[in-house]
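Lecture 7, part B: from sequences to assemblies.

Below are the input chains for today's worked example.
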Amino acid sequence: MRFPSDDELTGETDALAGLVPTEWPEDFRSGFACLVGRPNAGKSTLTNALVGEKVAITSGRPQTTRHVVRGIVHRPDGQLVLVDTPGLHRPRTLLGQRLNDLVRETLGEVDVVVFCLPAVEKIGPGDRYIARELAELRTPVVAAATKADTVPRDRLAEHLIAVDRLGKEHREFADIVPVSAVTGEQVDVLTEVLLGHLPPGPPLYPEGELTDEPEQVMVAELVREAALEGVRDELPHSLAVAVEEIVERPRREGDQRPPMLDVHVNIYVERDSQKAIVIGKGGSRLRDVGTRARTGIEALLGARVYLDLHVRVAKDWQRDPKLLGRLGF
Ligand SMILES: Nc1nc2c(ncn2[C@@H]2O[C@H](COP(=O)(O)OP(=O)(O)OP(=O)(O)O)[C@@H](O)[C@H]2O)c(=O)[nH]1
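Predicted structure of the full complex, as structure tokens:
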């Protein structure tokens, strides 16, 4: 009963293929950035657009940072490492408080913060709360007017003015960049702006490296994404996912097919009504969730997967320190 190593999954023997380069241009810059913004602000989509491909996994390498790396942007003149921050929320629950401590710590340690403010929505109390928090930091903050493709130019201009005003009310933004992660418009500009905020230094990761997020976290996230699809508004923060076990099935000698993994996952919700939403009529929605998540997990792990999903009601899981610990908070 063990989780197969990366080597076994990819068939690669040289896990360190592509070492960190020993030579780099004199004016090379490298460092860390964090994307923040209220839920649905476009952080994940923008991360993928900046990295240029869907984040892939690699592991078994010491981390340069204590933080979870979401993606790495490689450019001839610099390297930008995007690290994860859990959502920045008003601390209403224990989860909120813990997240916020973690968020503050992370934000204080990166070189630049990207504050995502979607152009489709008016700036609201949630954004102001984050702006106030960011004003406490010394880290430069770049405001990204995300989802710029969704509004006409005049609305975008109004949004940019509102973003500028928000900065002036709290702490002026180092830059304001409209960007669309979907059309790719201005993604390069944003990358350039962010690189400009990094200190001079050597590349931190080998070229080709995209992220070193542990498999279990990535698997949990794929399930969470699938489970929230279409019901994000109803269950935004009431759903947590824990990967209980990933077990490789024994194989007959000489079997050339990819390994078969049993992946056991619990989805936690807070109320029976939420459980019903996740499961759907006669279990139809949960089956779809499973199919979607399984496809992603198979691509991620390079293995065939049997995905076993259980939806459990854990009343007030957000306030239960033991359960929070198990869920990785
Ligand atoms: N049209 C358009 N839609 C976008 C863009 N970026 C994100 N979206 C959509 O906006 C929704 C939310 O995007 P996410 O990237 O998941 O947002 P997030 O900030 O990571 O959300 P949380 O995980 O809830 O914090 C998704 O449906 C995306 O497809 C964009 O540039 N243009």
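Note for the exam: The first strand starts at residue 29 and ends at 36. Keep this in mind when comparing with the next example.
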